Amino acid sequence: MLVQDRLADLRRRFHRYPEPAWREFTTTALLVEELRQLDLDDLAIGPDAYDPADRMAVPTEDELAPWRERARENGVDADLLDEMAGGNTGCVAVVDRGGEPSIGVRVDIDGLFVEEATGDDHQPAREGFRSEHPGTMHACGHDAHMTLGLALLDSVIESDFPGRLVVFFQPAEEEAGGGKPMAESHYADDLDYLLAVHVGLGHPTGEFVGGIQAPLAMSHLTIDVHGESAHAGKAPNEGANAIQAAATGVEAIYGIPRHSDGMTRVNVGRIEGGTTSNVIADHVTMRGEVRGETTPLRDYAKAEFDRRFEHAAEIHGCTADVSVTAESPRADSDPDLAEFVYDVARQHADVDSPLVHADFGASEDATFLMQHVQDQGGLATYLIVGTDHPTAHHTSTFDVDERSLTIGADVLTDTVLDLATVDQDCTR
Q: 4-215+331-419, what's its fold?
């Protein structure tokens, strides 16, 4: 089993090289370097781990190129970069002893477009492992997640675990783009259990959650509004103002009626368009999203979102196209498996506040894997390893308490090993 200092060193190494969705070239290379030192039965990298056609929110080649070049500058092997051509990052690691049960564990690997803090009160800056990629940061704990995945594999390999362990090192969680291809790969088939892992989320060090409830189904959307340009002073009547249509659409979507079946959310978070003050804008691109307490509620909100933008564009003589960039369904943690994880966690000396369940209130594309396993008759849960974090997730001063790495690795390992002693319904 990896000791605390080794876990911290791994986490700090990952922390220095954050990369956003489908650009995790250096990250994947660091993982592969560690995984090739383990006695694995299978290691699938990039397109060998999933079908690239199943990916969502894939960047353009122009967006991928600078990150691939940066990885080359970081010393990533050219052959490995070729394996990840087109942004096919991430990997799947398998230990297969030939028996039962078959357990999947999902950890995510991507970073965020957040500029990391530089002050001495921020530990990564103070201790020399701040992000080396400007404008990008591990601001959500995925560096810790990868560390936990490696620690689990190391411990299970050293044990007498009789079954099959599949660890999904999944790219593109922040864009909801990587869960679907992982779930549709053959590695996700015939799993008896699926454990998805996250740190923090408001839960402090010493707290451990067996399974979240109520993740929101979500769709990331791109909205393109097309109009006609014209001189804003001389002939404004000859134009069709895409900015005006976009503004009408944004106002309209916030008026989508509440639904009697549950909660919905809508947002437009980015708007780009126009050229200068004296030209009627002929094109606007927006990024938005809808969420729902259930997958049908998400679909309701999306249909209303589409309809309102279409009508807003028509009013102003424009057209609007709304397309899905990425999305994820709702999938709840199975109560029996969540309680099983809770029972394991509460026996750990450093877990002083075990919880069976906690509400989530956000979205996660691990739900694709959870739903796939559940549809095949298995059980799935999304567990939380508590960790102190000085500020909220997705902020420039986010950090994790490295003491929680040992707690998470121990509880994960004990959970996997103990699941080998129970029936599939989690009864001992």
A: Aminopeptidase (3.40.630)
For 368-403, the pLDDT digits (tens) are 999 999 999 999 999 999 999 999 999 999 999 999
What is the spatial distance between Cα 181 and Cα 158, in angstroms, rounded to a whole number?
A: 30
Closest CA to 381 of 343, 350, 340: 340
SS3 state of residue 289: strand
Q: What is the pLDDT of residues 226-281, one digit of tens each?
A: 999 999 999 999 999 999 999 999 999 999 999 999 999 999 999 999 999 999 99
Sign of the torsion formed by the C-alpha atoms of 157, 160, 165 and 171: negative
Distance separating alpha carbons of residues 383 and 194, to the nearest angstrom: 10
Identity of residue 182: M
Q: What is the length of the chain?
A: 428
Do the beta carbons of residue 20 and residue 80 sit within 8 Å?
A: no
Q: Which of 52, 48, 45 is nearest to 91 (CA)?
A: 45
Sign of torsion, CA 359 364 369 372? positive
- Residue 338 · residue 210 · CB < 8 Å: yes
Fold of 219-328: Alpha-Beta Plaits (3.30.70)
Phi, psi of 265 (to 5 degrees): -140, 145
**Domain residue ranges of the chain, discontinuous segments joined by +:** 4-215+331-419, 219-328
Catalytically active residues, by annotation: 108, 174
DSSP E strands in 89-180: the ranges are 91-96, 102-108, 164-170
Whether 189 contacts 72, CB under 8 Å:
no
Q: Does the pTM of the predicted model rise above 0.85?
A: yes
